[in-house]
Write a structure and sequence with these properties.
WH-like_DNA-bd_sf; DNA binding; FCD domain-containing protein; mainly alpha; single chain; 255 residues; Four Helix Bundle (Hemerythrin (Met), subunit A); Arc Repressor Mutant, subunit A; 2 domains; transcription; WH_DNA-bd_sf; 2 strands
Length: 255
């Protein structure tokens, strides 16, 4: 996905806010104690992988990003350099310059063996987090801007080109998490999507699966907008079950 120069001057989240989507800046939190370099790298990479920051979108200025993460600018520079070397970011010079998410993602690993216990752990976590988020979103007293934002996220996912689909699919589910009003739950949805996207990137993206997934998204959003938590949770679980079946069919599982 490419952006016009006028869009490229927007920092992280400004275009998303204008479109009624989740503001990625709300997903940037202070780094916890421990290995600061590793935690900062993993946190920023997670936002890129789930599409919270889209290809062609510019990161915030270094000072702002360091303040949000509560890390030193030297630590942040080191992490940004690592992400650039791994093929996720690029630095552009000039009037509209800055650090941007690269348009072409690094080549995916497709032949990695997956431990079935690890897969089950990820899928169980995702089921609890995302079906619970769907239910709570349907129970929430949604205001007009939230309802518009949800519809726009649905429209964006439905109209996505294959190469953008998983990013915009993830954005839709993160928007649903945002509707619950729970920051912790949103963080869990982001983590869930990052874990699953790592697995989905190893299998083919089939047109028939996209069509079915989009249909389930429409049912899910309709249930949330109708304030029907039982249906929202049920549709979310069916949607997640479909992904589980797909992963188990294509992944190379170890004994």
């Amino acid at each position: 996905m490419t952006c016009e120069a006028e869009d490229q001057v927007d920092s992280l989240g400004e275009r998303s806010v204008a479109e009624g989507l989740v503001d990625p800046r709300s997903l940037i939190h202070p780094v916890r104690a421990g290995n600061t370099l590793e935690a900062t790298f993993e946190g920023l990479l997670r936002l890129i992988k789930v599409g919270a920051v889209l290809p062609g979108q510019r990161l915030p200025p270094e000072r702002e990003l360091a303040d949000s993460l509560q890390v030193s600018r030297s630590t942040l520079r080191s992490v940004l350099g690592d992400l650039q070397r791994h093929g996720y970011l690029e630095v552009r010079r000039g009037r509209y310059g800055g650090t941007f998410v690269i348009d072409s993602a690094p080549e995916k690993q497709t032949d990695v063996t997956v431990d079935p216990r690890q897969l089950q752990d990820i899928l169980a976590y995702r089921t609890v987090v995302e079906s619970g988020a769907a239910r709570l979103a349907a129970e929430a007293d949604l205001q007009a801007p939230q309802r518009r934002g949800l519809r726009r996220a649905l429209d964006a996912a439905s109209a996505a080109a294959p190469e953008d689909y998983r990013h915009l699919d993830s954005r839709l589910h993160i928007v649903i998490g945002e509707l619950t009003g729970s920051r912790r739950l949103v963080d869990c949805v982001v983590e869930s999507r990052a874990l699953v996207n790592d697995l989905l990137d190893r299998i083919p993206l089939l047109a028939s699966n996209l069509e079915h997934s989009n249909h389930q998204h429409q049912e899910l959003v309709a249930a949330i907008l109708d304030g029907d938590p039982e249906t929202a949770e049920s549709v979310a679980r069916a949607h997640l079950d479909g992904t589980e079946t797909l992963l188990r069919s294509f992944l190379n599982l170890s004994a």
